Amino acid sequence: MSVPEAINLTAQHPANQPLLFRLQEQYYLKVDKQAIRISNVSCLCDANELLVKIHYIFNFDYEYELKPTYGLLEKAWGLPVSVGNSAALNDFVRQALENSL
Length: 101
Hints:
Distance between the termini: 42 Å
Strand order of the largest sheet: 1-2-3
Mean pLDDT: 76
Strand content: 15-25%
Helix content: 40-55%
Number of helices: 4
Number of domains: 2
Radius of gyration: 15 Å
Oligomer: single chain
């Protein structure tokens, strides 16, 4: 699959911007109808960290379905949690951090 084909495929599923996708061992950010190749990223964790930072810098809302995931990442990275304070999220993060020690 080519990058233009991937852009067309993602256009069939409406989503907020920006959107992260991987194609042929390379990560891309989709913004509007453009794909921006991320050159300094070697793994999904780094790509997601960049995506969270972009959301934060530009004050974008997360996709509704992904808010709990990004809330967890914000909490784990010590960032202010932007998706609301949830007792379930707090308990999950506390248990995950306790089990990793």
